[in-house]
Specification:
It is a single chain. It is built from 11 helices and 9 strands. The protein is α/β, with parallel strands linked by helices. It has one domain: Alpha/Beta hydrolase fold, catalytic domain (Rossmann fold). The protein has a 9-stranded mixed beta sheet, covered by helices on one side. Strand 1 and strand 2 form a beta hairpin. Helix 3 crosses helix 5 and helix 5 crosses helix 10. It starts with 8 loop residues before the first strand and ends in a 6-residue tail after the last helix.
């Protein structure tokens, strides 16, 4: 049971990680966190809209997320190598898992509660007890390139028990690279036009990595070889059957499901499409 005074989340930004932010539960009894990692060209807010609103606006969702902290990581998904983005992500999770480090929060900014009650928005500082947070369960949620960043981070820390104990939930991860299909694929393979598209995208270091089959195959082989090391080596994946950007290709030991949606829709919940929310909150049994 969750007391009415402990429902709702407050917004906090970070000093070191520009664009990243957290939605911190007002409850002191929190043992679970979710870390969201956007994809190529995305951002911490837009990629995951409207997780940020629904968790405090719909009663059934509110009850499920009332004792969860949510963290939204932002990185340079276009203009940095995946290795660089992976290192930034590792620094981010290291200040959260298993115990929160308050030094990285912008404590000078008053927190704003996400949900609006009958009496309007109420301000309530939560950082006063956030330093007591110690997460027992953490879900790492990635979309597109974010899925590659998460998997690369995990394989680089095979001695980190806290990270290996995380659940990994991926939306249309680019683990098989950028493989346009449908109309996008036709345009990409159209004489002249395809070469122009590829030349423009190839200016991006991250795009170069997503086109590097050797890099992606090595990541897959290392992950599969280490699959017994921890839960995080076995991802749960949701694909869009109308995805024309990446091609579904799960690792061994991963589980997967499909929705009739495209690459960007698959991770965006709405009042009438709560499956992304359900997917995130299903800690469930070991896969």
């Amino acid at each position: 049971m969750v007391d009415a005074d402990e429902r709702g989340h407050c917004y906090h930004a970070f000093t070191q990680f520009e664009g990243s932010f957290a939605l911190i539960s007002r409850s002191k009894d929190v043992r679970e966190a979710v870390v969201f990692v956007h994809g190529f060209g995305g951002d911490a807010y837009g990629t995951w809209a409207d997780f940020q609103l629904l968790i405090d606006q719909i009663e059934s969702v509110q009850l499920s997320f009332a004792k969860k902290d949510l963290y939204f990581f932002q990185y340079h998904s276009v203009w940095e190598r995946i290795e660089s983005s992976t290192n930034a992500f590792l620094r981010f999770v290291e200040i959260l898992i298993p115990k929160v480090n308050l030094e990285h929060f912008r404590v000078d900014v008053s927190p704003v509660e996400v949900g609006l009650g009958e009496s309007g928005t109420r301000l309530r500082p939560v950082l006063t007890f956030l330093d007591e947070r110690c997460y027992e369960r953490v879900t790492l949620a990635g979309h597109s390139e974010g899925g590659v960043v998460i998997r690369a981070a995990i394989i680089s820390r095979l001695t980190d028990a806290a990270l290996l104990g995380c659940r990994v939930a991926l939306f249309a991860p680019a683990i098989s690279g950028y493989q346009p299909a449908g109309l996008l694929g036709i345009l990409a393979n159209f004489p002249g036009l395809g070469a122009v598209m590829d030349a423009i995208l190839s200016a991006s270091p991250a795009y170069q990595d997503l086109k590097d089959r050797d890099f992606l195959l090595e990541l897959r082989h290392k992950t599969e070889a280490a699959h017994e090391t921890g839960r995080a080596l076995k991802a749960e994946i949701r694909w869009g059957s109308k995805d024309f950007v990446v091609k579904p290709a799960k690792y061994n030991y991963d589980t997967q499901d499909f929705e009739v949606l495209n690459h960007t829709e698959i991770c965006k919940p709405s009042e009438h499409y709560l499956k992304p929310v359900d997917f995130i909150q299903e800690w469930g049994k070991q896969k």
